[in-house]
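Structural prep section.
Before we set up the soaks we want a predicted structure of the protein with flavin-adenine dinucleotide in place, mainly to decide which crystallisation condition to try first. Input record follows.
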Amino acid sequence: MVIQKNVLLKNYSNYKIGGLAAYFLEVESTEELKEGLKKWNNINSEFKQFFILGGGTNILFGDNGYSGLVIRCEIKGIKLKEERIKVGAGVLMSKLLDFCIENSLSGLEWAGGLPGTVGGSVRGNAGAFGGETKDCIAEVKSLNIDSLEEITRNNQECWFSYRDSYFKTDKGSREIITEVMLTLKNKDKEEIKKIIEEKINFRIKKHPLEYPNIGSIFKNIEMTKIPDSLKEEFGQNGKTDPIPVIPSARIINLCGLKGKRVGDAQFSEKHPNFIVNLGNAKAGDVKALVEMAKKEVFEKFKIQLEEEIMYVGNF
Ligand SMILES: Cc1cc2nc3c(=O)[nH]c(=O)nc-3n(C[C@H](O)[C@H](O)[C@H](O)COP(=O)(O)OP(=O)(O)OC[C@H]3O[C@@H](n4cnc5c(N)ncnc54)[C@H](O)[C@@H]3O)c2cc1C
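Run finished without errors. Recording the tokens verbatim:
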């Protein structure tokens, strides 16, 4: 376990965008994490901030890198204990779903095709098709980055809500999720597999997965935030996610932005709430499109778009 210097973040981002991380630590166990953090505390650097990286599927790294330590959580391992699963935070959701199929365990089918790691999904309470990560969580283990104390929280203590959890708070952001205990139910293997495959196929059909991307750029717009004069028109295109919302993709499309390009970044032709990297997109190109959409949507509809993605580092 070594703390590397000047590591290219582009190689760890689903977007294939991002400059150099001043320091980079990859850990495969809680013990390695503790050891790495002790080393980090002894490094005399002006860059003392840190960032926890999972699968890099929801992050736009800046072209000018990150002035601090990036900790890549690679804690793996899935263990079955009756109907409970103990899973490392660095396990990919896709691997966890394979395990669920193999062992006839139901509860996570909604996550078919959800990219990223278990840790990232717990922190953001990721969800789709009416399901949310919180629904089958029994306990979450984490390590406090300052005290190196290991903490176990039950579901309620994780403060889960829509795409939110304790781990997004100021205090909670100083904890690295290391291990998660899930409670699932036994069900017919073929039935589980069928539902997961349906979700995967839906995503292949609807999302521009043929290009590097970081999922939906903007949150869908809560119905309560739609101006009264537009409620009737947009109401018919609403969906429940799990609260009533209008898809941002539709609003962006109505502004004529589908297919719009800056450099190698482009509002996807297939799904305009995705900005795809056509090859050599820079973070600045993506940001320019984000600002363009915010401005045009506000001018046309008086609706404020809000990012679902995170910006990390120097732009
Ligand atoms: C094609 C595509 C489709 C998507 N569809 C959906 C969807 O349907 N629903 C949805 O909710 N999201 C969706 N996303 C977004 C993303 O996949 C999820 O949010 C995912 O759970 C992020 O996991 P990650 O491991 O990639 O996290 P990262 O992108 O690496 O990090 C995201 C955040 O989690 C934190 N984090 C990561 N690991 C840990 C850890 N071990 N401990 C503490 N904090 C941690 C990071 O610090 C960061 O703040 C999609 C993304 C893509 C590219």
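Observations: Residues 255 and 296 are 7 Å apart (CA to CA).
Flagged for discussion at group meeting.
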